[in-house]
Amino acid sequence: MTVNDAAPDARLKAVLTALDALDLPALNVAVRPLSTAEVVEILERLGHRQRAVLYRVLPKGQALAVFESLDPTLQSDLLGGLQENDVAALFADLDPDDRVELIDELPATVARRLLQGLPQREREMTAGILDYPRDSIGRRMSPEFVSLRPQMTVAEALTRVTDHLEDAETIYALPVTDDQRVLVGVVGLRGLLRSSSDVTITEVMRPAHSVRATEDAEIAARRCADLKLLALPVVDNESRLVGILTVDDALRILESEESEDQARLSGSEPLRRPYLTAPVSNLVRSRVVWLLVLAVGATLTVQVLEIFEATLSEVVTLALFVPLLIGTGGNTGNQAATTVTRALALGDVGPRDVFKVLFREFRVGLSLGLLLGSLAFVVTSLVYDIDIGIVIGLTFVGVCAMAATVGGAMPLVARALRADPAVFSNPFISTFVDATGLLVYFLIAKAVLGL
Q1: Helix (H/G/I), strand (E/B), else coil: 188
Q2: CA distances (Å), 19 to each of 26, 28, 83, 276, 384, in order?
Q3: Residue 389 has what DSSP assignment?
Q4: What's the pLDDT tens digit per position in 117-172?
Q5: CB count, 10 Å around CB of 248?
């Protein structure tokens, strides 16, 4: 049941009605039957004040689960509406990796005060994660894991796992390290349970996949997902185990990166919070910069039209096809950019493959141009005349080939420059193709029509 189905659901209606009336006893009764997911959906639709009121009436056990399910930006907003003691207790109950995500959203003075209030062990684990670069997987890993030694027996290993059931992030994939904490293998809980108690870990462990703590978080998360691992060990430059990346954290990273890429592909900045909780000012800021950039870029198109003003005045019919041609070119370039950006995210291609991608996308664009150009030639020749048909047909071929080639190359160039491929993609490609497409169009028109 989702919040969108709240109308027929008396329980959800009761929560919203009690919140509107600030009837705390009724709200307390109404919220208890709701699942954690339902409470999260409601909180994502409420304002600051109502969100804090609803959160305060949640049972203690459910409150932490709800808080951990919220986006870090909403967690930060919610802390602002709670009492200082409640905030400190909630902060201390979080896992170190979740705590670090929240710290990135908090003012520096608030984060410092909360860190100082933590128990020493929790403070040290959190500070250890904070030492890694912001976009690295070290910043998103969990330092709470159960590690085993090769010489342990299965019985000893199971006892160790049992002793750490409450504080370990996961027990289903267990890294194996030597006396210097160097990763030497991994063993699954299933493998332990089906082995004899006197067998050593060396006999049941298998080689371990791992990532460096300084590696980009998206790349590490993609590797965890591709390998279908429940947990991926994270090591330092000396291959010493420093943490683990669990599959649920990997999926959260990929979801966040996907949302960011989609926003930038469409010419805006990611909101980093649910849409209904984002202030209108945030929505404006996320879009206005790109609109200004595109508006400035569009002046190139105006300049091209001005240069060929005489050509347009001689054959007015040419102006009718301008929107069609630049629209087709922009769409072709965007298709290529989106496809290559996705291939980059999946690890199918890299900057070293730029010439392969260029040649491949040129052939794709040329094929599309020939198909569309042939159709345009036939239709335009019947409606106008054969010379106009030749101009339009040839322009389709040139524009599609150029747009696909440029669109395929831009994400790879961006990755080589260590920039976000999505930023270099659709908005810039549309502007570039509009201007260059018109150049191709008018140059072909002048050559064919003898203008």
Answers
A1: strand
A2: 9, 10, 19, 17, 66
A3: H
A4: 888 888 888 888 888 988 899 999 999 899 999 999 999 999 999 998 888 888 89
A5: 11
375-396 confidence digits (pLDDT tens): 999 999 998 889 989 999 999 9
Token digits for 358? 């260029």
- Residue 93 one-letter amino acid: D
Q: Residue 451 is which amino acid?
A: L
User: How many Cβ atoms are within 10 Å of 310's Cβ, its own excluded?
Assistant: 9
pLDDT digits (tens, 9 = 90+) for 158-168: 999 999 888 88
* CA distance linking residue 297 with residue 301, whole number of Å: 8
Confidence of residue 269 (pLDDT cuts 50, 70, 90): low
For residue 250, give the amino acid letter: A
Better-scored residue on pLDDT, 285 or 115: 115
Question: Is 411:403 a contact under the CB 8 Å cutoff?
Answer: no
Q: Are 125 and 243 in contact (CB under 8 A)?
A: no
Identify whether the C-beta of residue 69 lies closer than 8 Å to the C-beta of residue 36. yes
Task: Take residue 227 and report the two structure tokens written for it.
Answer: 């390998």
CA distance 246 to 178: 22
Contact 397, 439 (CB under 8 A): no
Name the helix (H) or strand (E) containing 336.
helix 322-346
Please, what is the end-to-end C-alpha distance for the chain in angstroms? 66
